[in-house]
Amino acid sequence: MLQIFFDNAGAISWLILVLGAFAAAIFLERFLHYHRVRIDSREFLTGVKNVLRRENIIEAISICDATPGPVARLVKTAILNSEQGNKNIEDVLESAGLVEVPRLEARLTWLATIAEIAQPLGCLGTVLGLMKMFRITQINGPFSDISMLSEGIWTALISAALGLALSVIARAAYNYLIERVNTIVLDMEKTSSDIVQFLLNPSEEHNNSDNKLQQ
């Protein structure tokens, strides 16, 4: 089967394979990145709050610096602005979030583009394969047989199959990564809201924690 591919794959088929390798590299890089930045935000925030209750700002910032990902960076931003007396922490975090989200979505548009163009490219390869087949028929006329036409047929079929396969796989990979991004963004929103409430009303937060312990 591989020999058939190498003998009959046209330029479009090789282009689709190159795009497939590019899509695989994007998926792997983004998957590993999301795995690194995905943290247990509840445990992280609890540790930061415990340090802040002891008024140890430097240690709290150190915890944020040692923790990868946008959640930790947003918490650090909130702490720094709180120390500077900035009461508009929510606005600052919203602006910081607008910077973090594009970082998470980086290169995903390439994956979506590959998913969109793979199938049309496969159709283009199919058309070129059929053109090759009819060209052979035109040249050889009634003397054309299946062995002469097989190269064009194989080129058409290989291009169509590769284009369809890459389109389906790239679309599935894109949707999976978008779901990972949405999960991280949701963590960012919840954590931002929680740290703002803690920094603006530390006494109320402390009372709520005591009540939970008593219950």
Q: Give the integer mean of the pLDDT values.
A: 85
What Rg is obtained from the alpha carbons, in whole angstroms?
A: 28 Å
| Number of structural domains | 1
Structural class: mainly alpha
**Principal-axes shape call:** rod-shaped
Helix content: over 70%
Low-confidence spans: pLDDT under 50, at least 5 residues?
Answer: 209-215
Number of helices: 9
Strand content: under 5%
The total count of strands amounts to 0
How far is the first residue's CA from the last residue's CA? Answer: 68 Å
Largest sheet: none
Order of helices and strands: HHHHHHHHH
Commentary on this structure:
This protein is mainly alpha-helical and 215 residues long. The protein has one domain. The protein is 87% helix and 0% strand. Helix 3 runs parallel beside helix 8, helix 5 runs antiparallel to helix 6 (89-104) and helix 5 (70-83) runs parallel beside helix 8. The longest helix has 55 residues, at 146-200. The protein is rod-shaped and about 95 Å long.
Keywords:
9 helices; single chain; 0% strand; 87% helix; mainly alpha; 215 residues; disordered C terminus
Quick summary:
The chain has 215 residues and is mostly helical.
List the helices and strands and how they pair.
Layout: H1 2-8, H2 11-37, H3 41-53, H4 57-66, H5 70-83, H6 89-104, H7 108-140, H8 146-200, H9 202-214
Helix pairs in contact: 1-8, 2-7, 2-8, 3-4, 3-8, 4-5, 5-6, 5-8, 6-8, 7-8, 8-9
